[in-house]
Design brief:
This protein has six helices and no strands. Helix content is 79%, strand content 0%.
Length: 98
């Protein structure tokens, strides 16, 4: 599966997750439904502005649609890892006190 196919796969998953339709997303973005379907069917990327509108309507970043991860997700994962390490250290310290 190439990058454009992955982009559209993510879009379709988000449409399903948000219990909406391609027609509603296309309308919210200001696209003709035929244009939207054409991009999906041909497996081509929308314009940069089109990708922005799609991401905005679906409540994600363009980065997520392109790569499957948000920069913010990576930062959060790193912070969670640090918090878990601190909790483990605190738990060990409490065990020694008891």
């Amino acid at each position: 599966m190439d990058e454009a196919d992955m982009f559209w796969s993510r879009v379709k998953q988000l449409i399903k997750k948000r219990n909406t339709t391609q027609a509603r997303v296309a309308e919210a973005c200001g696209f003709h439904l035929e244009t939207f379907h054409g991009w999906i069917y041909k497996g081509v990327f929308p314009t940069v502005l089109g990708a922005y509108y799609i991401a905005r309507v679906l409540g994600v970043s363009v980065e997520y649609l392109m790569a499957g991860k948000n920069k913010h997700e990576e930062e959060i994962e790193s912070q969670l890892k640090n918090i878990r390490a601190l909790l483990d250290k605190a738990s060990s310290g409490l065990d020694e006190l008891i």
